[in-house]
């Protein structure tokens, strides 16, 4: 998994990395659909993600904001800083960075 840091001309630094979910719910059944019985041999927590996010996304974080873009653009890790900042600009804003300790 690649990790890059780019800095805007304004001085804002962005960390960018790939997220590839491994424990996701593959079925498209709605959450209120009746169960047909458990077929899994091992129970594990599985996340439901939108179809656009199933193949992963680029996560982007600055000191004040989080963004993401899906699907992961091919060859993103080899892009120059200007092209990465273009991806940051068109990415979906998803909130502010979370802190584990306040």
Task: Summarize the structure in words.
The protein is mainly beta and 102 residues long. 10% of the residues lie in helices and 25% in strands. The chain has a domain at 1-20 and 52-102. The chain contains one helix and five strands, in the order E-E-E-E-H-E. The protein has a five-stranded antiparallel sheet with strand order 1-2-3-4-5, covered by helices on one side. It is elongated and about 55 Å long. It starts with a strand and ends in a 7-residue tail after the last strand. The model has no long low-confidence stretch (mean pLDDT 81).
Write the layout of secondary structure elements.
Blueprint: E1 3-7, E2 13-19, E3 57-61, E4 66-69, H1 81-90, E5 92-95
Antiparallel strand pairs: 1-2, 2-3, 3-4, 4-5
Provide a brief overview of the structure.
Helices cover 10% and strands 25% of the residues. By secondary structure, the chain is mainly β.
């Amino acid at each position: 998994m690649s990790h890059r840091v780019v800095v805007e001309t304004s001085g804002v630094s962005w960390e960018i990395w790939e997220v590839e979910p491994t424990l996701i719910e593959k079925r498209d059944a709605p959450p209120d659909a009746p169960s047909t019985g458990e077929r899994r041999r091992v129970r594990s927590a599985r996340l439901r993600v939108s179809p656009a996010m199933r193949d992963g996304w680029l996560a982007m974080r600055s000191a004040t904001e989080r963004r993401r873009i899906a699907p992961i653009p091919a060859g993103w890790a080899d892009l120059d800083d200007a092209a990465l900042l273009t991806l940051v600009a068109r990415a979906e804003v998803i909130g502010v960075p979370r802190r584990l300790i306040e």
